[in-house]
Automatic annotation (TrEMBL):
Leader sequence segment: none
InterPro entries in alphabetical order: Methyltranfer_dom, SAM-dependent_MTases_sf, Trans_acon_MeTrfase_C
Limits of the Methyltransferase domain: 34-147
SUPFAM superfamilies: S-adenosyl-L-methionine-dependent methyltransferases (SSF53335)
Pfam family, one: Methyltransf_31
Enzyme class at the top of the EC tree: transferase
One term of GO molecular function: trans-aconitate 2-methyltransferase activity
Single GO biological process annotation from the record: methylation
EC number(s) recorded for this UniProt protein: 2.1.1.144
Keyword Flavoprotein appears in the UniProt entry: no
Protein name stated in the entry: Trans-aconitate 2-methyltransferase
Keywords: Methyltransferase, Transferase
Amino acid sequence: MAEWNSEQYLKFKSQRTQPAIDLVRKISAINPQNIIDIGCGPGNSTNVLKKYFPNAHIVGIDNSENMIEKAAATYPDLEFKTMSVDEICHDNANYDVIFSNACLQWVPGHREIIPLLFDRLNENGVMAVQIPVNTQEPLFKIIKEIVNEDKWVFLSSLNEQNATLNGDEYFDILSSLTDNFDIWETVYYHNLPSINAMVEWVKGTRLLPYIQALNKTEAQSLIDEIAESAAEIYNKQENGEIIFRFRRLFFTAIR
């Protein structure tokens, strides 16, 4: 697992937080008492939850100490813990809301993980999840093609990260757990000032494991190669900006 960098991640705080806002709005009509935010990162999603559910006890968890330190410093009135998804699955605690925004793609075994998390819900509790499913975006195709070039010799385990199922498979998992669920997709059109900005975005997420496996010179060479290939595909809009399309899958399920 990559060693997360909260400062790099937060370079695009507004764009990264919007899906969390959209997901919370989907469940805003309920009145939960206790909520867990899985993969809270630097705390922006946990803060969104607190704004919508001010009377609930909310805890944000992440397995990155860097992210938890940043979250605790930024939102000192909220509770954060360093903890893994596996610990939550096998804990005895139950929740009214299990929330996860852009985290579970880093956790393998969704056919097993999602039912285990669902079991941690109280009666009438809600699981609310957002997962990036953006492998068909040109930039992500470029990254996959380049990191698999022989010259890089990355461990196969790096290429196995970010593994997700397709929408039909998530539908089948949820339908086996409850009759009360919703599943949908949204494509966000992020306007970015340049190709370099788009590459900066993925340096904080998808590219991070590869960058950390290289020395500084090698990492810059990889970044440059990706940027050059992206510049051949992405065209500037009339205002000079680049559109970075980002497809995300959402689901809610009530126990």
